[in-house]
Design a protein that fits this description.
Blueprint lengths: L1 E6 L3 H13 L14 E6 L12 E4 L1 H6 L3 H8 L4 E5 L7 H10 L3 E3 L5 H14 L7 E7 L6 H14 L4 E5 L6 H6 L7 H7 L7 H5 L3 E2 L7 E4 L15 H15 L2 E5 L5 H10 L2 E6 L6 H14 L5 E7 L8 H12 L6 E6 L15 H4 L2 H14 L12 H15 L5 H9 L46 H7 L5
Parallel strand pairs: 1-2, 1-3, 3-4, 4-5, 6-10, 6-11, 7-9, 7-10, 11-12, 12-13
Antiparallel strand pairs: 8-9
């Protein structure tokens, strides 16, 4: 959204400029398909200091005729805002234009300016204005289905969470809602988002917050936004739905550190809009020959539409044993798309049998993975360079094991703080003939009364024999089985 303030000494002149701006939207809808929404606020000169900093300030000619020095005061109030002066014949001379520029004007809007030219100037000046963004918008994309976009989106979201980032996952799979269904985040459809896109509800923070739901009930830093129920107009370029969606993302940007979009079934104008607002594009490939053509075509399209400031990276996911050599895949994609080979991450995300069982579990690929997969995934995301080097992730082995055990306990609706302490303290086990399980030496005393671990003996993932396990790691990985 572009925030515009109109300043002039009379209400009549302010209204005249507003009418001119509103008349611009009578243009051909195809001209406005990617034009952002405008927030236009008319203000008296004395009200300026009480208003938030806009992207563009349009100064009317009547105020300048009465006191041209007022332009300097406006510049002091808005040092980084583009100031456009609405001129009449009195300010057309070159010497007067030079004088206005010295007082702080960035451009002149002559009286005979047509609607298309006016919008062009607004776009260019709003683009050059200093904008502060809170979050990072990451798109996860692939050339065809089945390459692991949803899995990587969920795993990357948990990785950011482990780095202390407030994270939002956006599910744009309108047909199957895979991301929400795999995470068991209900409801799977988003009626509120559909109402915002169709302008049935105002796009304000309180309403946008109703569009998101927590992935895990006890974690207030990890959320998911399901897709709308039915919103075919969002794929078309001749309506305001896309501009409304961009406004929703602007609100989300102020609420989250990271927004990860599973592009899913996004196509047409929606896909191009996402490319334009993204900060980063992660493109998922593998060495299956059947996916090569689709991947090359999609990467080429993305490089045409994506913002010049956005980073593009290509990820290898679960390469097949009998697929194409990875170095051949990299060289061919780089040659066909003219993408710098350094943008293709050489580290691969390996296949993990444990991790592949995450769909429908309520957990992510990272939650269900073994230690080897976690180490490999960590190396991949470090190569992406999207995490601050100064922040160390919470991926030390004791923390990972405790996290896995906590998720197991939550699934069985047991208290989890006591169980977490049990895992961190009870490291060694020895068999005992009169108990189903070996019990720990709680204080290093072998004569202490041995007891079974509460709640574990009833688990279907354990057999009724004595444990001979010597590490908490194996216990936790075995306790991870989905009942």
């Amino acid at each position: 959204m572009i925030r515009i303030v109109i300043v002039d000494s009379s209400a009549e002149s302010r209204k005249r400029i507003m009418d001119e701006l509103n008349a611009c939207f009578a243009l051909d809808p195809s001209q406005l398909q990617f034009f952002p929404k405008l927030s236009i606020t008319p203000l008296d000169p004395e009200e300026l200091r009480f208003h938030r900093i806009p992207d563009i300030c349009i100064v009317g000619s009547k105020m300048l005729i009465e006191e041209i020095g007022e332009l300097t005061r406006v510049r002091r109030l808005f040092p980084n805002t583009a100031i456009l002066v609405r001129c009449n014949g009195q300010f057309d001379s070159l010497s007067m234009v030079e004088h206005l520029a010295r007082l702080g004007a960035d451009d002149i809007l002559p009286a005979n300016l047509n609607s298309l030219e006016l919008l062009r100037r607004i776009i260019l000046h709003a683009r050059s204005a200093t904008r502060t963004r809170n979050g990072m918008l990451i798109l996860i994309e692939s050339g065809k289905g089945g390459l692991g976009v949803t899995s990587i989106a969920a795993a990357l979201g948990e990785a950011f969470l482990n780095y202390g980032k407030k994270t939002l996952l956006v599910d744009f799979d309108f047909d199957t809602q895979d991301l929400c269904r795999f995470l068991q985040a209900r409801p799977f459809f988003n009626e509120t988002l559909g109402a915002l896109i169709n302008q049935s509800k105002p796009i304000v923070q309180e309403v946008v917050e109703d569009c998101i739901i927590p992935v895990w009930p006890d974690d207030d830093r990890f959320f998911v936004m399901p897709p709308p129920v039915s919103c075919e107009e969002i794929f078309e370029s001749n309506n305001s739905s896309l501009r409304n969606l961009v406004s929703v993302f602007e609100v989300l940007d102020s609420l989250f550190d990271v927004i990860i979009v599973d592009t899913g079934a996004a196509r047409g104008a929606l896909r191009k809009t996402l490319y334009r607002i993204a900060d980063r594009l992660l493109f998922v490939i593998n060495n299956d020959p059947a996916s090569m053509f689709a991947s090359v075509e999609r990467i080429s399209d993305a490089l045409i539409s994506i913002s010049p400031s956005a980073e593009v990276n290509v990820l290898h996911n679960a390469p097949q044993k009998h697929g194409l050599p990875l170095n051949l895949v990299e060289s061919e994609i780089s040659r066909a798309t003219r993408l710098d080979k350094a943008r293709i991450i050489s580290k691969c995300i390996p296949f993990s049998k444990n991790a592949s069982s995450w769909p429908g579990s309520g957990q992510t690929l990272l939650s269900r993975a073994d230690a080897s997969f976690i180490r490999s995934f960590r190396k991949v995301i470090q190569n992406l360079g999207i995490f601050e080097e100064a922040v160390q992730p919470h991926t030390d082995k004791p923390n990972i094991l405790a996290s896995l055990f906590n998720k197991y306990l939550k699934k069985n609706k047991e208290t989890h703080q006591d169980k977490k302490d049990t895992v961190l303290k009870e490291i060694e086990y020895r068999p005992k003939s009169d108990s189903k399980f070996a019990a720990p030496f709680l204080n290093g005393n072998p004569d202490e009364e041995l007891r079974p671990i509460p709640g574990i003996s009833d688990s279907p993932s354990f057999v009724n024999t004595a444990l001979d396990t010597r590490s908490a790691k194996e216990l936790l990985l075995r306790a991870q089985v989905v009942s």
